[in-house]
C-alpha cells in the first residue's frame, strides 16, 4: 500500500467528512510529510513511531509535538476504521507531557496607575447619577490591583 495515496484519501476525508479548517489540513500535510520522511515506511510500526516521537522532543516545543502526534494518531485511527490495519500502534504508545506552568502576562504598574488616574478624573466630571458607577469601577480596579500586588510579592 502506498502511504501517499492513503494520506491523500485521509486528507479528503478530513476536509469533506470531518470538515476541518484549511489551516488544520495544511498542518496535517506538513506533519505527514515529516513523519514519513523520518520513518521511510508506508505503515511504520510502534518502535519507529516511538523513535519519531523522541525526535520531535529534540526539535519542537510541547504544543507543536502534541499537535504532530495527534495528527499521526488520527491518521492511524482512520486506517484502523477503514480496516487497512488491524490495530493502531498508538494503543500501545503512552505519551505524557509535563505541562509547563506559564504565568499570565501582567499589566505594568504604570498603566494601572494611568488607568486609575483617568478614572478618578472622569469621576470628578461625572453627573450625580453616574458617580456611584465610577466609584464601583475604581474600587474593582484598585482591589484587583492590590490582590495582584500581594500575589506577585509572594511569588517573587
TrEMBL record:
SUPFAM superfamilies: DNA breaking-rejoining enzymes. Residues 1-80 form the Core-binding (CB) domain. InterPro entries: CB, DNA_brk_join_enz, Integrase_recombinase_N, Integrase_SAM-like_N. Keywords: DNA-binding. Belongs to the 'phage' integrase family. This is Site-specific recombinase XerD.
